[in-house]
Amino acid sequence: MELLRTPDERFNNLADYPFEPNYLEVDDLEGGRLRIHYVDEGPRSGKPVLLLHGQPAWSYLYRHMIPPLCEQGFRVIAPDLVGFGRSDKPAAMEDYTYSRHVSWMGQWLLKLDLRGITVFFQDWGSLIGLRLVAEFGERFDGVVLANGGLPAGAIPPEFSTHLKEAYRGLPVVNAGDLRQRFEDKEGVPGFLYWRKFCAETPNLDIAELMQTASTVPLTPEESYAYAAPFPDQSYVPGARRFPSLIPLFHDEPDVLENNLAWAELEKFDKPFLLAFSDNDPVTAGADQMFLDRVPGCRGMPHRTITNAAHFLQQEQPGQCVQAILDAVIQSEIAQRLP
Q1: From CA 311, how far away is CA 297, in angstroms rounded?
Q2: 202 assigned to some structural domain
Q3: How far apart are CA 330 and CA 300, in angstroms?
Q4: Half-sphere exposure (CA, 13 Å, Cβ side) for 108?
């Protein structure tokens, strides 16, 4: 597997991101090794809080959440998924599969030997993170799910043929039009436009993509930081590939694996808090499935993160931190119960 590694100087003096880099190597599943970067701040004796980002972001997304969590005495750990941030980037799009990402991050989790974890995840962080919770549930004390989910072939067979044909004929719209496609509830689902755009647009501008999913303008410094891991288009196969890996159709890879993970989540009775934002057309309504199926959701102080779009960590870090603190309180209460 050919790997690219973003030059270190691309990460010098990023706005509000003073954190020292940490690295672990894992098996790339093809006989080689790849390097995963992670932020690891706060006391090593502190209760671990794990923060998992999605596509096309990296751990920079959590820059305003890490310091206040450290101030509360937590050990705060925020990895960059393979293909993002300071982690290694497989050069070919076919190197990226859903199962590989779960394996890579599972290896990383076991190497760090994290236990008693409270995890906050969103977007692809939840697609990978929920699989980890299902597989290593004994390592997690609590979960905060924000603007994410665990799709498992929700588009039924009777609609698949029509939608797949429609997808092949979709235009590659401008980035600025993607939000409108999500908000339009008639016709082809907006996510298929997102999938098409990421896979086929000639120049995938990461900062532009982040801005598209945000309602608050990014500063020039923030735009640079989000684009920093990707010096040119050879570095973006992961960002291009991720939307196509989400198992929306019943016959796509990882439908079975996600259904098996759901079977485990249906037994997960530790605190499971939902914190979806009020202005995210991508994941609106996805929280209901967890309320219906995950026992750990019962009695939890679920909340709506207000005045936030898809990347709520960027727009409302304080509300996200409070959700984590409330989940920790619930987990401590649960552990004291007989």
Answers
A1: 22
A2: no
A3: 8
A4: 30
pLDDT, tens only, 109-128: 999 999 999 999 999 999 99
In a domain, 180, yes or no: no
In this structure, the number of other CB atoms found within 10 A of the CB of residue 292 comes to: 9
Q: Which CATH number do you get for residue 112? A: 3.40.50.1820
Main-chain dihedrals φ then ψ at residue 183, nearest 5 degrees? -75, -20
The helix-helix angle for 98-112 and 124-135 (nearest 10°) equals 60
Query: What is the pLDDT, as a whole number, of residue 41?
Result: 98
The number of residues making up the chain comes to: 338
Number of domains the chain is built from:
1
Q: Judge whether 170 lies within some domain.
A: no
- When pLDDT is cut at 50, 70 and 90, the band that residue 82 belongs to is very high
Segments forming the whole domain that contains residue 261: 3-153+251-336
Q: Could you list the active site residues? A: 123, 280, 310
Contact, 112 vs 86, CB < 8 A?
no
Q: Which helix (H) or strand (E) holds 177?
A: none
Cis (ω within 30 of 0) for the bond into 151? no
Q: Is the pTM of this model over 0.90?
A: yes
